[in-house]
Amino acid sequence: MPVIDLDDLDKGFFEGGTVTFGDRGFHVHFHSYVLSVQIGYGNYCANKDYSRGYGENPSHCHNAEIAIWPIVEEGKRSGMLPFSTDPEQYYNTVRGWVPGFQICRIVPLIRNMRPDNQDVTMRNIVTILDHGVNESLIEDIVIEGVDHNDHPDYCDAYISDACIDGEQLTQLQLENLTPDYVYEQVMDSLR
Asked: Do 176 and 159 form a contact (C-beta atoms < 8 A)?
């Protein structure tokens, strides 16, 4: 498997990690955890039914199957972490059909995850995967809480309502919008 030192790439996004590529995807190795992103035949993604008869696996896909596991020793791993907040669902260790934008949103969480915050971090990851939206598709945005005495921070401003393709976002989806996106929308609304 070829390896790339991620310190040579975006310093903030993959800091301290390495990537290994396989025939169906790649692994991002951080200090304590590994993120597996798979897009080949047999994986839970749009390429799931891609036939082996076509030769190599496809090199791209608009969604992927992901898994996360802790590194217990250099080169060794323990079991994969469940993508569920329900202890009875401990066997849900892969998550399929995850859009690329959501993978980008969970990378910083995985990069900063440690054994002492693993449970909270996994709950946050599950929330993002369950309720995250592609912010580039959002329209009909309603901003509330703008206090001009708080210029330029506007820390109390928020998006109270928005739609994607005419369908209203849920409260959880609104709460999971990235702070940078919300701030950008607040500033755009003031122009």
From this structure: no
Q: Is 89 left (phi over 0), alpha (psi -120 to 50) or beta?
A: alpha
Q: Which residue has the tokens 């709460």?
A: 175
Residue 144 tokens, joined? 């509330």
Identity of the amino acid at 165: D
Query: CA 153, 154, 155, 161 torsion: positive or negative?
Result: negative
For the chain, which residues make up each domain, given as ranges?
A: 3-131, 135-189
C-alpha 183/C-alpha 149 separation (Å) is 16
Polymer length in residues for the chain = 191
How far is it, in rounded angstroms, from Cα 18 to Cα 144? 42
**Is the CB of residue 72 less than 8 Å from the CB of residue 56?**
no
Distance CA 26, CA 97 (A): 16
> Tens digits of per-residue pLDDT, 39-55?
988 899 988 887 655 55
Q: For residue range 78-120, what is the model confidence (pLDDT) as tens digits?
A: 789 998 767 777 778 999 999 888 898 899 899 989 999 998 8
Element (H, E) at 127: helix 118-131
H-run or E-run covering 20? strand 18-21
The token pair at 178 is 């990235």
The pair of three-digit structure tokens given for residue 188, joined into one six-digit string: 């755009």
Q: Output the pTM of the full model.
A: 0.69
